[in-house]
Amino acid sequence: MKDKLKAILPLAVLLALWQAAASAGIWSEYVLPSPQRVFFAGWNMAQTGVLLKHILVSLGRVLTGFSIAFVLAFLLGVLAGLRPKSAVYYNHIVEFLRNVPPLSLIALLILWFGIGETSKIIIIVLASFFPMFLNIKKGLASCDSKLIEVGHSLNFTEGQIFWRILLPSALPDVLVGMRVGLGYSWRAIIGAEMIAAASGLGYLILDAQQMSRSDKVIVGIFVIGIVGYLCDRLFSLAIKKALHGGVGDSWS
Question: Which residues touch 170 (CB under 8 Å, ≥6 apart)?
């Protein structure tokens, strides 16, 4: 109970300060709408189904791009972790792309693929791939060599060593990479939707800004944070349940 109160207290203080600033008229309603105005704007959007529509569109894009990125990151991460000498063939390309902000590619992707779903999915893949790849690579490469020696002494095949020793040892790093990658996916899709989309939470914010509806802009920001937080918590709970809490403090 005390922990819940500690978590709620900062939120209550921020809400009170927000209300006080709005009531004092420090900024106009156009710049800083009151909490009540934001609440009713969000309530109306939820009742009409507009808010749910944008949430589902963004969520679908995130899950699609994240899934593709994980498959690619896992395959390349396994190659990098098990065959480090092969890095000479692809490492310079990976490092180059890792330092290029995905949003900087939007203009080029729109020219190639249009403003449809493909360009947005590619942005998500590029944003979430690298944290997962680096963590998978690190987890496999840092496996205790003594465990591998035990596997050889038991006449394990290479496949058995991977599935029974290497992968379980790397699992905490893999899961942390997935968690970070999921957060990056949300950041990337919102930026992409604000530039080239006709639906989604990013589009919702941009459309509200163009209509001078700062209350709807704030609603969009809050919804992004809440949905992203819920995705992170659900992902954490699912993994803890599946692994019986075996990931330790990685999920604190």
Answer: 81, 136, 139, 140, 142, 143
Overall fold of domain 32-251: MetI-like fold (1.10.3720)
Residue of 186, 193, 189, 66 whose CA lies nearest to 130: 66
Does position 35 have pLDDT exceeding 90, yes or no? Answer: no
d(CA 252, CA 236): 9
CB 227 within 8 A of CB 250: no
Hey, where are the domains in the chain? 32-251
Side-chain-facing half-sphere of 102: CA atoms under 13 Å: 24
Structure tokens of 236?
């954490």
pLDDT of 68 strictly over 90: yes
Which pairs with CB-CB distance under 8 Å and at least 24 residues apart come from 41-47?
A: 41/213, 41/215, 41/216, 41/219, 42/219, 42/222, 42/223, 45/216, 45/219
Q: How many CA atoms lie within 13 A of 198 on its CB side?
A: 4
Q: What is the DSSP letter of 166?
A: I
The residues near 9 (Cβ < 8 Å, ≥ 6 apart) are none
Residue 65: what pLDDT? 92
Give residue 5's pLDDT: 73
Rounded-to-integer distance, Cα 66 and Cα 229, Å: 16
